[in-house]
Specification:
Elements lengths: L2 H6 L2 E2 L1 H8 L3 H9 L6 E3 L4 E5 H20 L9 E3 L2 E3 L4 E6 L2 H17 L3 E5 L2 H14 L3 H6 L3 E4 L5 H17 L5 E6 L1 H6 L3 H13 L1 H4 L2 E8 L5 H10 L12 E2 L1
Parallel strand pairs: 6-10, 6-11, 7-8, 7-9, 9-10
Antiparallel strand pairs: 1-3, 2-3, 4-5
Helix pairs in contact: 2-3, 5-6, 8-10, 10-12
Length: 258
């Protein structure tokens, strides 16, 4: 398309562009701020507007990158899910960090939304307050989210009093999903729940390590643990990385909620 054609091309708002790219509006704001995705700013409020041709170019570029990532073999199965342009193997146990409330949503929204769209069983483990925040935002891109919860496609929990209890919960839930013919699982854990339940950091990381070596490998599940850097110390965040070595297989900037 020539420059002249682009000047007369109709413009899309951020909600329409997010639907075309199958991404969250938060991601689009981040991509445009970094220059990764072109946009125009219009009006006194400097609202973002997008050309369809720019969105199509972006999709083509990222499809090529995703295909290249999928070709690469690891010691586990071939990549099975896509998350914000990354191909991730089932059996992966990853962690992400954020230090703002919007940063909490960077991966949690597409992770759960895409899993539900794919017919996977999803789990959200978080404090009641964080659950409400994530679910309220998720309703904008998944209006049927309350029905998903009611019908068991999305299972929510505010955590357990011990790591052993939580491990048993997931083991039973994963086994039941298999009996029901569910082919894929996704677990999102916002780890502030552990602090709310009074679990020690040592107990939390014992659970993470056991999960990583057991359930996370035995079942077709992708697990994403989120850590709020405002609540956890630097040493605690370093230990979190040690418990989620799969994270190092991907560019770390994808897992920072900025």
């Amino acid at each position: 398309m020539s420059a002249i054609d682009k000047t007369v091309e109709s413009l899309l708002n951020i909600k329409q562009a997010a639907e075309i790219l199958n991404a969250s509006e938060i991601s689009l704001r981040r991509w445009t701020d970094s220059g990764k995705l072109p946009c125009l700013r219009i009006g006194a409020r400097r609202e973002r507007r997008f050309r369809l041709s720019d969105l199509q170019d972006y999709l083509e570029q990222n499809q090529t990158l995703a295909q290249g990532a999928a070709i690469k073999q690891t010691g586990k199965r071939i990549a099975k899910i896509e998350l914000e342009g990354i191909s991730i193997d089932y059996g992966s146990h990853l962690c992400t960090f954020y230090d703002t409330d919007p940063g909490r949503l960077k991966l949690s929204l597409p992770f759960l939304r895409d899993g539900l769209l794919a017919g996977e069983r999803c789990f959200l483990v978080a404090t009641a307050e964080i659950q409400a925040s994530i679910l309220n935002e998720l309703r904008d891109v998944r209006p049927a989210i309350d029905q998903d919860i009611h019908e068991g496609r999305l299972i929510t929990s505010d955590g357990m009093a011990s790591g052993a209890e939580l491990y048993a919960f997931f083991e039973n839930a994963f086994l039941n999903a298999g009996k029901q013919g569910i082919k894929g699982l996704r677990v999102l854990g916002d780890m502030a729940w552990a602090l709310k339940k009074g679990l020690s950091i040592e107990t939390l990381y014992d659970f993470e390590a056991n999960y990583n070596q057991g359930l996370g490998r035995r079942f077709p599940v992708v697990s994403l643990c989120q850590y709020d850097a405002r609540l956890f110390s630097g040493i605690a965040l370093l230990n979190a990385l040690k418990c989620h070595e799969d994270t190092f297989q991907y560019p770390l900037n994808h897992f920072l909620g900025v």
